[in-house]
Amino acid sequence: MARRRGSRRRAAKSAASYATALALAAAAGAGLLALSAERTLSRLALGGLGESFSTRVWSAPFVLRAGASAAPERLLERLDRLGYRRVDRAPELGEYRWNAPELDADLRGFSTPTASQRAGLYALRQDRRGRWDQRDDAGHAAPEVRLEPELAAELSGARKLRRDPLEWAQVPRSLADAVVAAEDKRFWTHWGLDPRALLRAAWADARGRDLQGASTITQQLAKNLFLSPRRTLLRKIEEAVLALYLERRLGKQRILTLYLNHIYLGQDGASSVMGMRAAARFYFGKDTAQLTLDESAALAGMIRGPGLYDPRRDPDACRERRDQVLGLMRDDGLISATALSAALAEPLRPAPAIDENDARDDAYYVAEVVRELVPRYGGDALYRDGLSIYTTMDPVLQSAAQRALRASRRQAALVALDPRTGDILALTGGRSYSESQFNRATQALRQPGSSFKPFLYAAALQMGLTPATVLSDRRRRFPGGWSPSNYDGIYYGTATLRQALAHSLNAATLDLAGRVGVDRIVASARACGITSPLHDSLGLALGDSEVGLLELVSAYEPFAAEGRRADPRLVVAVAAADGTVLEAPPPRSVVVLDPAIAYLMTSLLESVTRTGTARALPKLGFSAPAAGKTGTTNAGRDAWFVGYTSSLLAGVWVGDDRDRALKLTGAKDALPLWAALMKTALADRPADEFIRPPGVVEARLCVESGMLARTGCPKKLDEVFLAGTQPVGRCSLHRGGLLGWLDRMTRPRARR
């Protein structure tokens, strides 16, 4: 008996020791799980929202200033692109009503490191002159109204994830309620586990079946963050332990936020769509803040099976699942019967799918942004850390630029920028990014031909020569047998500076280059921003040194911006995933040219578009004040046009990657593309007359003598000069006063 009792005591002691060991092992295992989870959570917290979030590239916001004359149709286009809905009633958030000439828009508002807009209802009215008056919801004048930036691209890197972080404050109530109703109705009250679901899972495992869902949102998050996708009892236990840890560590709001950021919601080609914000953009073309109740329910319903309930592939299944979620929300008291009826009546409206192989209008622009930022941030960080990159791109202008190039019969590139800030508003490096990723706007160096001549003429004006200075326009032979000709083979004997530039007379230009000297030409080009190597010969004056398109266009800034040159820029700010601003440098500009000389250059370049090689602009549908210069290289291998209005500077190159002789010309091949872009730009940007600065005077000259005109001079012209350089003597070929007038009246008229 005593022996039997001793055996029982030893067995009990052994069992107790075994139980203690199991408990210690379980505690150790739970501790290790918690430690591993804490390391992962720390990585997630690093920088705010952690790794493997897609980086977003944003366009510039559109700014409408009071008194501006933007075309209504272009303003409505911008609202439509941003996902605003047109209505015939008083608009709500994300909607607008257009009843010409009045526009009411309930703007969403936004904030970036460099710009912001308060959300609210704005009333805009266009007067008879086409100018906008703007009022906020309190009736106060609004000097500026901004539309939020467009999402240009999402960068996901090698793992091919599209994931955009949300903070709790950014989660719409309807979306949170829909997800809780669909996935875990007791989420707000349980402590991380659903005991009934655990028992059901254990029973399924004991019977040799796969473990089925019924996990709480917290358990699903634990699985997504920490565990493998295998379905076993051990993994289910680990999931439960981690769920308890997460509940104690994070709290409900943080758990739901992380869940919404990490849930898998389908495929965009080779990229996984991860998180509700990426899904909202992918399936409905809008941010989560803009989702309607029915759209929130549709996305929540997709969690159970993104492939089964894809609104594009199987809209009927998606609609049925959406309606189920709406019913659950009503059963749980989360929505009213009226809201349920309205949401059920809404049709399913997924955004059109975009084939990832199709080239987007902004592909070249975004690629150049990436090329610029990779050296600063590294490829890994740029593609996975959830950065927000704010650019200077105008998406409407960028689309117009790409459309123009698609219409070109040859390869082409285009750059448009704001000459006062250097902001690159549009940049496209070829007709099709899918066919060729080589960016001809930034990576190609080509001879600019006559589009380089303005730097010579600016140097001449700085020496004291004037637009009326007479040049020799006779063909010459230079050492080595070089004898460049005028394009059309016609020589005028003499020509003024204005005539020589307007008609691109090579012989007269070389006469001018001989007077100015190569060193001064180089200095002028360098001051304006040309950085490429330049030949030390007179051929430089005719554009024989290779330059890039962006380089050349930005070098015209001083002519367009009263002598100032701004560094061209694609990026205005970069922010980390938690909103920390990593960089936001202000625009930089320096004065490189006297404003009076800059105006004289603009005046000379206006002659190119009025009477010179670019005089076809009105026939191309563009008649606003503009200045610019065509360029054509030997055998028509390259065609150029760089030109500007009072608010926009743009340049076009047309040519061939194999450098073939194509008989291109700037006027025939590049100018039409420039005109197509600028016609779009005119709808948003003023093209006023160029303003004459102090230090510039105008004088009326006799065409024949070049001196101040008398009444008897038969041909007169008005010319501009730097103050003090205008002619002071009167014409010696014709009489003045009444006699001069009589001479002019009685002089035989030339036959036409």
How would you sum up this structure, described in words?
This protein has 5 domains: 2-45; 62-148, Penicillin-binding protein 1b fold (2-Layer Sandwich), CATH 3.30.2060.10; 164-345, Biosynthetic peptidoglycan transglycosylase-like (Penicillin binding protein transpeptidase fold, Orthogonal Bundle); 449-617, DD-peptidase/beta-lactamase superfamily (Beta-lactamase, 3-Layer(aba) Sandwich), CATH 3.40.710.10; 697-746, no CATH class. It is built from 23 helices and 28 strands. The strands form 9 sheets. It has a 5-stranded mixed beta sheet with strand order 11-1-15-21-22. Helix 15 packs across helix 21. The termini are far apart.
Number of domains: 5
- Name the overall outline: elongated
Kindly state the number of beta strands.
Answer: 28
Mean pLDDT equals: 87
- Could you name the CATH homologous superfamily of the largest domain? Biosynthetic peptidoglycan transglycosylase-like
As for the CATH topology of the largest domain, it is Penicillin binding protein transpeptidase fold
Question: Layout of SSEs?
Answer:
Layout: H1 2-45, E1 55-58, E2 62-65, H2 72-81, E3 85-86, E4 95-99, E5 102-107, E6 110-111, E7 116-117, E8 120-126, E9 132-135, E10 144-147, E11 151-155, E12 161-163, H3 173-183, H4 195-206, H5 217-226, H6 233-249, H7 252-262, E13 264-268, E14 271-274, H8 276-284, H9 293-302, H10 315-331, H11 337-345, H12 363-377, H13 379-384, E15 388-391, H14 395-406, E16 411-417, E17 424-428, H15 453-462, E18 470-473, E19 493-496, H16 497-502, H17 506-516, H18 518-528, H19 549-555, H20 557-560, E20 564-566, E21 571-575, E22 581-583, E23 589-591, H21 595-610, E24 627-632, E25 639-644, E26 649-655, H22 666-682, E27 696-702, E28 716-722, H23 737-746
Parallel strand pairs: 1-15, 3-4, 12-14
Antiparallel strand pairs: 1-11, 2-10, 4-5, 5-8, 6-7, 8-9, 13-14, 15-21, 16-17, 16-26, 18-19, 20-23, 21-22, 24-25, 25-26, 27-28
Helix pairs in contact: 1-6, 3-9, 3-10, 5-6, 5-7, 9-10, 10-11, 14-22, 15-17, 15-18, 15-21
